[in-house]
Amino acid sequence: GFEAFLVGGCVRDLILNKTPKDWDVTTNATPEQIISSFSKTFYENSFGTVGVVNEQTENETLKVVEVTPYRLETGYSDNRHPDNVVFSQKIEDDLQRRDFTMNALAYNILQNKIVDLYEGKKDIKDKTIRTVGEPLSRFTEDGLRILRAVRFSAELEFEIEPQTEKAIQENVELLKNISLERIRDEFTKMIMSNNPMMALLTMKKLGLLPYVLPELVETIGIEQNRAHAYDVWEHLIRSVQHSADKNYPLEIRLSALFHDISKPESRRWGKEQNTWTFYGHEVLGARRARKILTRLKYPSKVIEKVVTMIRWHMFFSDTEQITLSAVRRMIANVGRENIWDLMNLRICDRIGTGRPKEDPYRLRKYHSMIDEALRDPISVGMLKIDGKKLIEVTKTNPGPKIGFILHALLEEVLEDPTKNTEEYLENKAIELISMPEKELEALGKQGRQTKEEADEEEIKKIRGKHWVK
């Protein structure tokens, strides 16, 4: 018998024909009445929000639906949370405390009716972000709304209207009162949106960078060498935008944004080169990125990966001179699990310079060399039997014959992989040990030659895959 409306972002997303990430319901029922209306709930806050649990659904967005009474809020002494919450019986009271008009919409499913007191539908149609009522009041109530406005503009590709922008610029210091964890969460959503470059440009325009990422401010206007079309700032935001265009994960996006963060402090004029140099910026940058991500309280696993990627992002060199052993050392430095992400970071770095081609020959050649280095080599180590076992089953002493037998067995397995079983190889070894040593040596040499030919064929396939020699 209670009223109930879908409210907030889920209504906005439905109007935009997007699938909501979560569902919020508002009602004239009290928390106690909400709890008594459902079989499984939890209530762990002072704002009246009850989590209604649905274990029957496979839809992740419906497993917990937050249901909150209509409420009025007063006093925001910490510029983040209300000092007092009073439950109400009117949906109008609830909507007036919302942040932006596009989020101040309530939808009654039974009546198929939207309550829209602040022209939220019109602002959605016009792709406009506007506060509910007077902007200054909304931002002083909750300073995090400043970052939410920027985040929504990037996620939805909406414009922040002039009065809302002006209020943000005049109240940026409110961000000093917001916990770093909340700032991190909003920043992460910006970076993980389809438009991180847009978000960062908006933060710069509105004066938010000094309060969130002051280190990025230092990169603005820092001219680079002839390999770059842009200053360090624009290079970084273009690099992170490419990581979003490729739908790369958070760690690559953060690495793309911060990989040259220490170019300002490492920049020196090279007289011989007659241009700017940035020696050691990757080492300094890795340290600086660690400080930034630690300050923003990112998980240690994220920090370690980003730091590793930035530290080694300057691996790229002349593929005609670099050796396979050098590639193996690089893999050892970053870890097998990170090497391809490092290559993807390199692609973002390249696109960020203003070069249109993301896979030039040198980069394809490096991909090929990594594939070669990661490939398990064709060797007697592939066999389901080793020298120790051979000595045991043939009842012979260590010596050249054991090596000959291993290579003879390898040739058989390369010809027919189904023979690579302990039983077959043991029986075959007993048969081979009785052969004269000269014949066994000839079989062993033939096996080595077959191995080398197979190895060469594998490498040829890898290089062909990457269109390199």
Main sheet: which strands, in order across?
3-4-5-2-1-8-9
CATH class of the largest domain: Mainly Alpha
β-strand percent reads 5-15%
* Residues in helices, as a percent range: 40-55%
Question: Which structural class should the secondary elements be placed in?
Answer: alpha+beta
Number of domains: 4
**CATH architecture assignment name of the largest domain:** Orthogonal Bundle
End-to-end separation? 75 Å
Secondary structure layout plus pairing:
Elements: E1 4-7, H1 9-15, E2 24-27, H2 31-37, E3 41-42, E4 50-53, E5 64-69, E6 71-74, E7 84-87, H3 91-95, E8 105-108, E9 113-116, H4 120-125, E10 128-129, H5 135-141, H6 144-156, E11 159-160, H7 162-170, H8 180-191, H9 196-206, H10 209-212, H11 214-217, H12 232-245, H13 250-258, H14 263-266, E12 268-270, E13 275-277, H15 281-295, H16 300-311, H17 324-334, H18 339-352, H19 361-374, H20 387-394, H21 400-415, H22 422-433, H23 437-465
Parallel strand pairs: 2-5, 10-11
Antiparallel strand pairs: 1-2, 1-8, 3-4, 4-5, 6-7, 8-9, 12-13
Helix pairs in contact: 6-8, 6-9, 9-12, 12-13, 12-18, 13-16, 13-18, 15-16, 17-19, 19-23, 20-22, 21-22, 21-23
